[in-house]
Amino acid sequence: MDLPMKVKIQMFLLRSQKIFxxxxxPYLIMNMNYFxxxxxxxxxxxxxxxxxxTYSDYESVNECMEGVCKIYEEHLKKxxxxxxxxxxxxxxxxxxxxxxxxxxxxxxxxxxNTYAPYNKDWIKExxxxxxxxxxxxxx
Length: 139
Known about the structure:
Elements: E1 7-13, E2 18-24, H1 26-30, E3 40-45, E4 54-58, H2 61-79, E5 86-89, H3 90-99, E6 102-109, E7 114-118, H4 120-138
Parallel strand pairs: 1-5
Antiparallel strand pairs: 1-2, 3-4, 3-6, 6-7
Helix pairs in contact: 2-4
Protein name: Enhancer of rudimentary homolog
Family: Belongs to the E(R) family.
Keywords: Cell cycle
């Protein structure tokens, strides 16, 4: 896996009204304990063309949210192929999520043996929580 050495993340924590800029290893994010151990399917459609639809499946919600971040980081790598360090803040990530034609998750619900659908707003909330937890561990 080709990961950058460090990922810079700038976060604005709404409740505390503070801005944090962090450099963390992508491996730290990847090795975090997942708070949702439910099989999750990520559905992505980058533009209006139905042929661009793809899906990925993950062992947990957090792993899926990391997958969304990786999609954005791959997008940035394609736009900046000679840049060794990817730098972005959470608002840029959320703008990217918003510009996708469709992005949703299906999360397995053990109690009903079904998958529950979740939209972009839910995904952004889970990404925010994931990155906030990563920021707390690296300070």
